[in-house]
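W.,

You were right to be curious about this one. When I first looked at the sequence I had no strong expectations either way, so I just let the prediction run and decided to look at it fresh. Below is the sequence, 191 residues in total, followed by the output.
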Amino acid sequence: MLLLKLFFAFIQVGMFSVGGGYAAIPLIQEQIVNIHHLMTLEEFSDLITVAEMTPGPISINSATFVGMRIAGIPGVLLCSIGCIIPSFAICLTLAYFYYKYRTVSGVQVVLGSLRPAVVALIASAGASILMLGLFQAELEAVVLGNLKYVELIIFIVALFLLRKFKLSAITIILGSGVVGTIVYTLMGSVA
């Protein structure tokens, strides 16, 4: 029963994550944390962090990590396949119709009207990840007393370095990991 629940949850994620992998994160959270209560928000946040750092599409990485955490290898297979099947079918169908009707002006109007929704989904995923990183809570449950100052400083410095100096994301990720490890190691040895 658990495996079927995971499979159908990730079919829904694959079906409705319009806009790419980051748009899938709130959908995965809704299915796995909020609806089915298979993970806590903190566990989900940790898995998403690992999924973001590994190569490949974030939605498939997330499906793989969630499946492994909840149901082992069968969970990996079913979550990953469930996440891929809708996208595969939709892409094949859309590619056929797009190449057949791409010169029709209505097609361009539909694509243009989908862009704001995609941006909203990606912004929502970004806000969720930011709140989880800085407060270990969702936006509705943010309490300023729970602000993690080390994470806030790392975020501000990383954002500055990305925007001002155009450093590579890999450099920022590795540097943030090193700085966070050093700071928390020093804080642990002081306490």
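Here's what jumped out at me. The mean pLDDT is 88. And, maybe more interesting for your project: The chain has two domains: 2-142, 148-191.

Coffee later to discuss?

I.
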